[in-house]
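Re: that chain you flagged

S.,

Sorry for the slow reply, it's been a week of failed gels. I finally had a moment to sit down with the sequence you sent. For the record, here it is as I used it:
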Amino acid sequence: MEREELIKLICGMLETMPPEDVQTIYIFALHCRE
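Prediction finished late last night. Pasting the structure tokens below so you have them in one place:
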């Protein structure tokens, strides 16, 4: 999957998620970048 597609998918998911889950995904994304 291309990065832009992934970002759009995640943004769509974030809109329906509680803040705790958003924080978890954000941390996960930071680890994936390294």
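What I noticed first: Residues 3-33 form one domain.

Talk soon,
D.
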